[in-house]
Write a structure and sequence with these properties.
Distance between the termini: 75 Å
Family: Belongs to the enoyl-CoA hydratase/isomerase family.
Shape: globular
Radius of gyration: 19 Å
InterPro entries: ClpP/crotonase-like_dom_sf, Enoyl-CoA_hydra/iso, Enoyl-CoA_hydra_C
Pfam families: ECH_1
Organism: Streptomyces axinellae
Protein name: Enoyl-CoA hydratase/isomerase family protein
Number of helices: 10
Strand content: 5-15%
Length: 272
């Protein structure tokens, strides 16, 4: 594997396949492939490695077990303000790197994709979802701005009306419905997700690499032009991580009860 991709936690697996295809697997199936704090930096480093990896032509990213990735593991200890700022700066760099990588990226969405997981899925050049996969943007449900990808890519994929509906409500979509509205490239039966992704990857790996990379570079101009929207949403998300609403959402999750957002409470009428 050379000296690339040796970042050590075992929570992300990287495997070279034939024809220059690289398979990245988020590997915490017991936690639905949710990310610990160190995993954000690990994923960021892996994408940086992909960019400088001369042996790789196409990348496939998927999740172990029955999930793709369900975002940050909210069961872990609350991050300090310094950790939060570092994580979101890492995320800003990840998005910039993914947009800059000229090799095609394919997401094999084998199960639930939420928050960071959905970001990883949708920022891929080709996204292949299980018909019954559950896709949720999710940020507003935990009291934070949708900051890691939604303002950047959703309007380009599905238009502003669908974007505002699904991003503001955090309503779930199936993979089949996501394909119908144009959020993902394809939906297929669950057992076909990774084989189909690998088939497409192999096809692209045998194609003209210069033509594919130049075409991706040209198309990604639509996304790179929208980076200011992404950076604004990320900055607002940083603010929200210090809010009472986010603290309440984390506590409610731990206590397995409905969230009672402080900002949504109706103030009592003043006494006469």
């Amino acid at each position: 594997m050379s000296d690339l991709y040796q970042h050590g936690t075992g929570d992300v697996l990287v495997e070279r396949r034939d024809d220059g295809v690289l398979l990245i697997t988020i590997n915490r199936p017991e936690r639905y492939n949710s990310l610990t704090m160190p995993m954000f930096e690990e994923m960021n480093q892996i994408w940086a490695d992909v960019e400088r990896d001369d042996q790789t032509r196409v990348v496939v990213v998927t999740g172990a077990g029955n999930a793709f990735c369900t975002g940050m593991d909210v069961a872990q200890p609350d991050p300090t303000p310094e950790q939060t700022l570092a994580m979101l700066e890492t995320e800003r760099k990840r998005v910039a790197t993914v947009l800059r990588i000229e090799k095609p990226i394919i997401s094999a969405i084998n199960g639930p994709a939420v928050g960071y997981g959905l970001s990883t899925a949708l920022l891929a050049d080709i996204s292949i979802a299980a018909d019954d996969a559950v896709l949720i943007e999710g940020h507003t449900k935990v009291g934070v701005t949708a900051g890691d990808h939604a303002a950047l890519i959703w309007p380009l994929l599905v238009g502003m009306a669908k974007t505002k509906y699904y991003v503001l409500t955090s309503e779930k979509l199936s993979g089949a419905e996501a394909e119908r509205i144009g959020l993902v490239s394809l939906s297929v039966p669950r057992e076909q997700v990774l084989p189909r992704a690998m088939e497409v990857a192999s096809q692209l790996a045998r194609g003209s690499q210069q033509a594919l990379r130049f075409t991706k570079r040209a198309l990604n101009t639509w996304l790179t032009n929208a980076v200011p929207q992404h950076e604004l949403s990320s900055a607002l998300e940083i603010i929200d991580f210090a809010s009472a609403d986010y603290a309440e959402a984390r506590q409610a999750f731990r206590e397995k009860r409905p969230v009672d957002f402080p900002s949504a409470r109706i103030a009592s009428a003043p006494a006469n």
